[in-house]
Amino acid sequence: MTHQSKLSAYLLLVLLASPLEAATQTVDEAAPEPTDVIFVGNNWEGMIDVIDADSYEHLGRINGIPDREQRVAEINDSLVHRLVFRGIRSFIGEGHNQYVDDMYSSHDGRLLVVSRPSFADVVAIDTRSGEIAWRFEVDGYRSDHMAMSPDGTEVARVDVGRHPQRIREGQVPAGWTV
Fold first, then answer.
1. Could you read off the pLDDT of 134-154 as tens digits, one per residue?
2. pLDDT at res. 107
3. For the chain, where are the alpha helices, taking DSSP H only?
4. Which of 5, 31, 83, 137 places its Cα 20 to 30 Å from the Cα of 165?
5. Which of these, 143, 133, 73, 78, lies nearest to 108 by C-alpha position?
């Protein structure tokens, strides 16, 4: 069994560090008892540690930038985007890229929604596969903070130098809700 599939068997996601009661399970295993977890994002590394909320045991990691090579290639194709990317690293990131900022889980625990300032986007990462389920680029050059509506149907994000934008349920791919 892969590390990612072991991790997905334990994942129950949190919203603002408050436990949610949503379980995931691997195809070949019965679902374990629900376990509340805390996500800890390493902004500079792009990895997200999953911690048991009761025991503080480290359960595993999720890659917050599985598409890093593709995003960097796109940034390098544009002089403006390349300058902004390097500026974020030099000034805001204190010499480091900002890969993982705010994170929220979907109510059903299937998705981890992540704001990624250096890539100027918001992505939803499938907690079972570790793949990106959907991605929205921001209108500005750097995504910043975000929040999820209480009912879980919208994500509001703040683009630096722009007005807040909303990702509505109807805008995400069919079958996915935030």
1. 998 887 777 777 777 777 777
2. 79
3. 3-10, 68-76, 79-87
4. 83
5. 133
As a whole number of angstroms, the distance between CA 93 and CA 60 comes to 25
Q: Per DSSP, which regions of 4-71 are E strands?
A: 14-15, 18-19, 37-41, 47-52, 58-63
d(CA 147, CA 154): 9
CA–CA distance, 175 with 173 (Å, rounded to integer): 6
**CB burial readout 73-100, b (16+ within 10 A) else e:** eebeeeeebeebbeebbeeebeeebbbb
User: Which residues on adjacent β-strands are paired with residue 169?
Assistant: none
DSSP state letter for 169: G
